[in-house]
Amino acid sequence: MKIVEAKVIVCCPGRNFVTVKITTEDGVSGLGDATLNGRELAVASYLSEHILPLLKGRDARRIEDTWQYLYKGAYWRRGPVTMSAIAAVDTALWDIKAKTANVPLYQLLGGASRDAVLVYGHASGSDIEETVKAVATYVQLGYKAIRAQSSIPGLNNTYGVGHGGMHYEPAEKDAPPENQWFTEHYLNFVPQLFARLRKEFGPDLQLLHDVHHRLTPIEAARLGKELEPSHLFWLEDPVPAELQESFRIIRQHTTTPLAVGEVFNSIYDCQTLIQEQLIDYIRASVVHAGGITHLRKIATLAEIYHVRTGSHGATDLSPVCMAAALHFDLSIHNFGIQEYMRHTAETDAVFPHSYTFENGHMHPGEAPGLGVEIDESLAARYPYQRAYLPINRKLDGTLHSW
Ligand code: KDG
Ligand code: MG
After folding, report:
1. Quick one: which atom of ligand 1 is closest to the CA of 314?
2. In terms of DSSP bridges, do strands 234-236 and 258-260 run parallel, antiparallel, or are they unpaired?
3. Confidence of residue 99 (pLDDT cuts 50, 70, 90)
4. Whose CA is nearest to atom 10 of ligand 1?
5. Alpha helices (H) in 102-182, listed in sequence order
6. Is 112 in the pocket of ligand 1 (CB under 6 A)?
């Protein structure tokens, strides 16, 4: 089954998305997401200049071999640009394989391990009481798990706080917005927020929080310890994780479960974290961690060490990635939770899909393949717009992790 066409589609229905579309000689097409927020055109160019010309004439059925060909064949390994590009091709080939077999992708991945996939939504507010109201809105919508973020008193802008409504996109046009950071304010505030949320919503609601890489290991240890009475589902990205060993310090001090991995692109980024059981949830995603083929290997390693998955699912991951993630989540045994940030109506119109949300859970649907398509003529009406993620500075001006 030869590949006859492979192209990259860049569009901006509210935010930028990079999509690969591969078509075979018998007219079956598959899609893959290659979006890397703030660096979209680097991946688009890697695909169109270096990868897509290699695909024509290849057998679309040879998914593992194509993955190895693109990974080992480049000589230069890993990295978010390379791995997102490989991921998109890999996802499109899985889509084609499942469409050809006339089954939803999860059936090829071993079938359903559960009825539906637990997801968490994002609630945020400008202070504690507004965040309580935002969490209540998600509870009313049926969510069983909710991430809570709040503005920090005294800081002009804080990661994770939306501008009202359910859609949040931190990237802004033309130049990176600037956030402010002061660790002591943050560390004093967050335990108060979660104590209030527990008091309001009781013990059953699953509560999550994203530190977004902004603490040192010993600061993260303090936060984890102080959050223990609030029984978080997880504390995410407590420190930047280039240094995997730094999690040993956090782990020695707290029983708050830890999640990490949304910026990882390879199994080698989380090998120590998993094998030393330094984390509880691995958040690597289909799009940034080499596609279904590579993410399955990460999940299998994690399963041996009692680490569960919790894939990244922010709005910069397109509906194509969301669909792929849901098939993956439904099928693997050590699934934990899936992040679900709703896309805007414009995005959903460009990417019609069969996945659904009900009662705090999602299902990928029963359409053959991924169950998501792209309306190319609608996509063409939304051309690419350069946008940058924010940067973060301490109050004295020092650049800090965002
Ligand atoms: O592009 C960056 C976002 O995907 C990231 O900031 C979102 O941390 C994030 C999350 O947990 O969804
Ligand atoms: Mg995060």
Report:
1. 12
2. parallel
3. very high
4. 314
5. 105-108, 128-140
6. no
What phi and psi values does residue 382 have, to the nearest 5 degrees?
Answer: -120, 80
All structural domains of the chain with their residue ranges = 3-104, 108-367
Whether ligand 1 lies within 6 angstroms of the CB of 124 is answered as no
- Look at residues 112, 46, 114 and name the one whose alpha carbon lies nearest to residue 80: 46
What's the gap in Å between 341 CA and the centre of ligand 2?
11
Q: Whose CA is nearest to atom 5 of ligand 1?
A: 314
Contact 87, 291 (CB under 8 A): yes
- Contact between 69 and 86 under an 8 Å Cβ cutoff? The reply is no
Q: Is 373 in the pocket of ligand 1 (CB under 6 A)?
A: no
Query: Could you tell me if the CB of 169 is within 6 A of ligand 1?
Result: no
The residues that are catalytic are 159, 212
Position in ligand 1 atom list of the atom nearest CA 315: 4
Nearest CA, atom 12, ligand 1: 314
User: Is this prediction's pTM over 0.85?
Assistant: yes
Ligand 1 atom having least distance to the Cα of 171: 1
H-helix or E-strand spanning residue 234: strand 234-236
3-class secondary-structure state, position 105:
helix
Q: Which CATH superfamily is domain 108-367 in?
A: Enolase-like C-terminal domain (3.20.20.120)
Strand partners, 209: 235
Closest-CA residue, ligand 1 atom 3, reads 314
pLDDT tens readout for residues 107-144: 999 999 999 999 999 999 999 999 999 999 999 999 99
CATH topology of domain 3-104: Enolase-like; domain 1 (3.30.390)
User: Contact at 8 Å (CB) between 278 and 247?
Assistant: yes
What's the rounded Cα separation, in Å, for the pair 176 and 170?
9
For residue 392 and ligand 1, the question of a CB distance below 6 A is answered with no
pLDDT at 167: 77
Average pLDDT over residues 235-239: 98
Stretch 352-379: mean pLDDT: 98
